[in-house]
Amino acid sequence: MADQPKLVVEQFHYRRNKLHCEGIQLAALAEQVGTPFYLYSQTALEQQYRSFDGAFGNTPHLTCYAMKANSNLSILSLFRRLGAGFDIVSGGELMRALRVRSDPRKIVFSGVGKTEDEIDLALHHGILQFNVESGAELEILEARAATAGKIAPVALRVNPDVNANTHPYIATGLAENKFGVPVGSVLPLYRRAARSRHLRISGIAFHIGSQIISTAPFIRAAERLVELVRTLRESRVELRYLDLGGGLGITYGEEVPPEPAAYAGALNSIVKDLGCTLILEPGRAIVGNAGILVTRVLLTKKGRARNFVVVDAAMNDLIRPSLYGAYHWIHPLTLHRRRTWKADVVGPVCESGDFLARDRVLPRVSAGDLLAVMSAGAYGFALSSNYNSRPRPAELLVRGGEFRIIRRRESFPDLIRGEVAKCLPSA
Predict the structure, then answer these.
(1) Number of C-alpha atoms within 13 angstroms, CB side, residue 10?
(2) What pLDDT, on the 0 to 100 scale, is given for residue 392?
(3) Which of 79, 111, 356, 401 sits a CA distance of 20 to 30 A from 363?
């Protein structure tokens, strides 16, 4: 038997040297549906959600899945069925949540730049809470609520100036970041909200970043928030909800992030005496390791300085390696006893930054071989694009021995939908 790569979740496993997702052999599936495609284990999704939500036990809380990580309707429908609410950052995400019959009273609207149309839509449907990130946004929200004859539930998102020790592009809790309200501005803004006939103070929020693999930054942020809540209460600002955001990391390579129970225990120990209902916003922690990207080798190329494995997936399908320098394990769908070599795994896109892995020790694969890019369930398809006029891949969901295509592969008509082939008259 060939050496078996280490896999993070049990739903992805080798049987007779063939990679399986639950009861489905993936090489056979690839021949049936074509490549590239994203594939998710429904059992892993369910287990990860229940593990996270259950970690908070009897503490009053609402788990609002952060839809930006993966917003496929089938996955949203699954989480809604499990009791989840949703953390949204756009009107489109609100419409997705409503499409799967989410209770609007379980929807939290975050984001620094909500448009008037998006605010109007959220007010119309009666969402749980707007997480407001500036004084200017508070003014806009108040005006739109007044126009609609509504009262908008408001939580200020505080920027606690805490270093989350993550990639700069996904750090959101430092003073230099665009997110949130500085601590010194919080009390004046709450007092302003309290005077308004069209705003109702609902809670307070923070979110310090993503892919955080230690409880320490969460603890520092929660301690600052607790101190702030007590100061607010001394000024008669009462809060019902304490939104602790998300950001818990996963294992991509060698990281060892905290288990949900350790994460919940650390936060509960700090906020338990405040008497607030907690709002949690996990995304990556639930979906990240439940999904993979399957791709086919087109050819191999030995260069003067590097070796290349050219595959049919590219940076437009999975941009995390190009954007963040992110690491994803890449495993063959069929194990063989082959010699290894060091190579870059690259796609067909016309960019030198189009890679899925660099300087990676891999088996000596050949054209037609199939590879799995692991831990691709979060920010994989969600960040995909049509760059180079490449159709986006299919998405599949597996449970047991069955699979379902939950997004069909795009076609050329999909690529040009909404365009017209007519220019303006020449002078």
Answers:
(1) 4
(2) 98
(3) 401
Q: For residue 408, how many other CB atoms are within 10 A of its CB?
A: 11
* Placement of tokens 């592969």 in the chain: 409
Residues 6+ apart with CB under 8 A from 383: 318, 319, 320, 323
* Per-residue pLDDT at 68: 96
Cβ atoms 198, 152 nearer than 8 A:
yes
In a domain, residue 51? The reply is no
Could you tell me if 241 and 129 are in contact, meaning their C-beta atoms sit under 8 angstroms apart?
yes
In this structure, the answer to whether residues 178 and 302 fall within a common structural domain is no
> Could you identify the residue written with the tokens 């004046």?
188
SS3 assignment, position 332? strand
Domain boundary among 239, 265, 282: 282
Across the chain, mean pLDDT equals 92
What 70-73 contacts at long range (C-beta under 8 Å, 24+ apart), as own/partner pairs, is 70/40, 70/283, 70/287, 70/291, 70/377, 70/378, 70/379, 70/380, 70/381, 70/382, 71/96, 71/382, 72/40, 72/381, 72/395, 72/406, 72/407, 73/99, 73/100, 73/406
Assess whether 64 carries a catalytic annotation: no
Q: Percent of the chain scored above 70 by pLDDT?
A: 95
Q: Pick the catalytic residue: 21, 64, 276, 350? A: 350
CA–CA gap between residue 182 and residue 161 (Å, rounded) = 8
CA angle 183, 123, 241 (to 5 degrees): 40
Question: Are residues 235 and 264 both part of a single domain?
Answer: yes
The whole-angstrom separation of Cα 154 and Cα 199 is 7
Rounded (10°) angle between helices 260-271 and 216-234:
20
Q: What is the domain count for the chain? A: 2
**Residue 197: domain span:** 110-282
